[in-house]
Amino acid sequence: MAERVRVTLNTASFACPLDEVARVAKAHGFDGIELWARDIEPPLSAQYVGELMRSHGLGVSAFQVLRDFEGNETSGLHARLAQAEALMHAMATIGADTLLVCANTDSHSSGDRKTQAADLRALADMAAARQLRIAFEPLAWSRWLNRYEDAWACVEQINHPALGLTVDSFHWFWSGTPVAFARQIAAHRCFIVQLSDARPEGRAAIEVARHDRLFPGEGVWLVDDLARTFHAAGFDGFYNLEVFNDSYRTLAPDDFAARAARSFHQIFEDQI
Hints:
The chain has a single domain, classed as TIM Barrel (Alpha-Beta Barrel). 39% of the residues lie in helices and 16% in strands. The chain has nine helices and eight strands. An eight-stranded parallel barrel has the order 1-2-3-4-5-6-7-8, surrounded by six helices. Strand 5, helix 5 and strand 6 form a beta-alpha-beta unit. Helix 1 runs parallel beside helix 2 and helix 2 crosses helix 3.
C-alpha cells in the first residue's frame, strides 16, 4: 500500500490570481498545484511561476494540456511534436514532470489503433528524452478512446515507461467503468488521479464536466472507493481535486480550499 497521500488543487477551480491559489494551497496543507498553460501567459511567465511554486514549497502535479494529438489527420506529426515541445520547455522551467494529454476529440481524426499508438509512442519518446512523462486521459466525449478499458489497452500495448494514464473519476464513472477495473491497471502506469463527483441528471457530459462538477461525496458516484482502490494498489502519485463548478468559483479561495481539504480527509482519513 502507498504511504502518505499527496494532494493538490487545480487552478481552474478558482477565479483568482495564481499567487492567491498558491497561498491557499500552502495554508490548507496541500502538496502542490495542477497548472495549465494559460497560467504562464503574460503578464506571468514560466520562470515567475516556477519561482512561485518553489517559494511556497509546492509541487506541480501535472501540466495541462495537449489536445487532439494521436491520430490527427489535419496536421502533421512534426507540427504536433513542435507544439508538445513548447509545452515541455515550459514544464522544465516551472518544475513539472508530467504533461496531461487528452484523447482526440476531433471527428476527422483517425481511429486506426496502429496510427494512434505510433503517435503516442513518438510523444513518449520525446518526453523520455527530457526526463518527463505523458499522462494520457480518455475524455467521455473523445472520438475513439473514451473509456478507460480502451485507453489502458492502448497504453499497455505501447508499453513505454514515459507513457501512463491520467485517471479522472469524472470520465471514469461517466463512461461506466466499474471501480473494480482499477485493479487491472498497473499502479506504476497511473501517473495522476483526479477526483470529482457529479449528478449527471440527463445533461451532456461536456457541460457537467466544465461547469458543474462536485466535491467527492456530493454526487452519485463511488469516488471514495475509486481513490482508495488505487491507493491500496500502490499508487503513490498526486491526487488532484479537479472540481470545475461555476458556483464554487464564486467562493472565497480559502473557503474552497478548506472544503477541498475536508473532502480529501474524508477519503483518506489519517493518511494525509
